[in-house]
UniProtKB/TrEMBL annotation:
The keyword Translocase does not apply. Pfam families: adh_short_C2 (PF13561). Residues 4-177 form the Ketoreductase domain. Belongs to the short-chain dehydrogenases/reductases (SDR) family. The keyword Oxidoreductase applies. It comes from Agrococcus carbonis. Keywords: Oxidoreductase. This is 3-oxoacyl-[acyl-carrier-protein] reductase.
């Protein structure tokens, strides 16, 4: 695969960190964003708040100066504020959508400028099985993650002839610090619903992201790829 400049938002931990590492391991120039600009060794770490267009623009300007125009963008930054519908405040809904959905729009819109000039680009949006499958207490999160599908498919129709692809990767349950804290009974209950009988590793999600952004996947766009062990069955 040709060496590219890759940006992973929210790349300082969890799935985002694994995605950044996968691209580094493949020889790419990688930048990550986090709110405070912290990050692991390896990628260029830049501060960015995806709810602020000026902050996003400043992050891109620095990345472009140090690594070159962003050719692959992975919109991974996200938050949760889970609570049942009747208890969810309007602010809980607005904040999650603004970060997870509108934040992805801000990042992708800024990245598209360089991609259009280059007539080449890869947009990967990190959704969730919850966006298509639903989840109790997650009306805000599910709405934000479902909306990413519409963004990817609209970008595909709008920019597909310019050498730009846009796809969605939808992880299910992943081995993280949060799932590790669940008691054995709860873990067993969750795993019963997953045909694979286990959680995914962050690296398994990262491998799919790296592939869909690569040369071999140049003719795939507007797709939703589940990495959920069969939990959602494509829903």
């Amino acid at each position: 695969m040709t060496s590219r400049t890759v940006l992973v938002t929210g790349g300082n931990r969890g799935i985002g960190r694994a995605i950044a590492q996968a691209f580094l391991d493949a020889g790419h120039r990688v930048a990550i964003t986090s709110r405070d600009g912290s990050g692991p060794e390896g990628p260029l770490a830049v501060a960015a708040d995806v709810t602020d267009s000026a902050s996003v623009d400043a992050a891109f300007t620095r990345i472009e100066a140090e690594l070159g125009p962003v050719e692959v963008v992975v919109a991974n930054a996200g938050i949760t504020r889970d609570t049942l519908l009747m208890r969810m405040s309007e602010q809980d809904f607005v904040d999650v959508v603004d970060t997870n959905l509108t934040g992805a729009f801000r990042v992708v819109q800024r990245a598209s400028k360089g991609m259009l000039r280059a007539k080449w680009g890869r947009v990967v949006l990190i959704s969730s099985v919850v966006g298509l499958y639903g989840g109790p207490g997650q009306v805000n999160y599910a709405a934000s993650k479902a909306g990413l599908v519409g963004i990817a498919r609209s970008i595909t129709r709008e920019l597909g002839a310019r050498g730009i692809t846009a796809n969605v990767v939808a992880p299910g349950f992943i081995e993280t610090d949060m799932t590790a804290e669940l008691d054995d009974a709860t873990q067993a209950e969750y795993k019963k619903a997953i045909p694979a009988g286990r959680y995914a590793t962050p690296e398994e999600v990262a491998a799919v992201v790296r592939w869909i952004a690569g040369d071999e996947a140049a003719y795939i766009s507007g797709a939703v790829i589940p990495v959920d062990g069969g939990l959602g069955m494509g829903h």
